[in-house]
């Protein structure tokens, strides 16, 4: 859904460079692989609890694609806000969605995402990735084989300008990792937030990115960028981040964000960290992020682990919000889970309950 008064906005990544081994093409979303989708009135009708259209909602489900293009085995992977029926409403719409029959090479699993966010003025880019940033996330196998591709991701843009809760909703060719590569690129984006009733507001954006090889790939690939939500053996606590809040920003209650790029030592520690984006500048958010990076450690136990970490780089985003300075008990609203229970584990835990229909519990 899109519009000048709310909805979901398509933004071209607008990453285009001249000569060179690789680049990202601008701008238009890739051709749709959908034969049919739920209409916006059908989405609204499936979400009866969302009577307040002055608030954002997002829902996403991951589904298998049958030979016919029909969806099956759908499960909710994102629901905001929780407990308002967004996930169950989206699941009820699954029969409305149908893909072009995938054939031998088409995607056999897809993410269906719907959402709404009110705004008067849409957000816009304040920083976009460079060609070197793109090179670091280019899928390894596609790079080796000289394969170009496209991906479209959908994210929430926060009031601090960060992209969060990103999902790959389309990629081509299927199974080559371009969706994951596009998500790995998101710490390099910074946005000016959308405006609603004169105030910054979260918004929903879909970003199409084209990964293009313009010639033979070089033999040296450099380090591979991995997402920051690794299974860290050690990491800063909420209190550590609050304590690192820069003094000037703390006094002025200024929010900020910094993303740093770090290599990794054989012991799994981060090193050689450089700030690749910081907003606003001259408040010390980049310095605070580098200091916090020293608290991260990845568990490295085998010779294979040691060999692997030498070729890795981590792009680590930090968001500093003045609200964290006041909270008596810290609340993490959007955790990056290192592990989650399987569907089988959830069924086993609740198989003794006698409730029928949809049941929802929140801790």
Beta percentage is 25-35%
Q: What does the average pLDDT come to?
A: 81
For the biggest sheet, the summary is: 5 strands, mixed
Order of helices and strands: EEEHEEHEEEHHEEHEEEEEEHHEEHEHEH
Q: CA-to-CA gap between the ends?
A: 31 Å
* Percent of residues in helices: 10-25%
Describe this structure as you would to a colleague.
Strands 1, 2, 9, 10 and 14 form a five-stranded mixed beta sheet that branches. Strands 15-20-17-18 form a four-stranded mixed beta sheet, covered by helices on one side. The chain has a three-stranded antiparallel beta sheet with strand order 5-4-7. The longest helix has 9 residues, at about 285-295. By secondary structure, it is α+β, with helices and mostly antiparallel strands. It starts with 7 loop residues before the first strand and ends in a 13-residue tail after the last helix. The protein has helices spanning about 40-45, 85-90, 130-135, 140-145, 180-185, 240-245, 245-250, 285-295, 305-310, 345-350, and strands at about 10, 20-25, 35, 55-65, 70-80, 100, 110-115, 125, 150-155, 165-170, 190, 195, 200, 205-215, 225, 230-235, 255-265, 270-280, 295-300, 310-320.
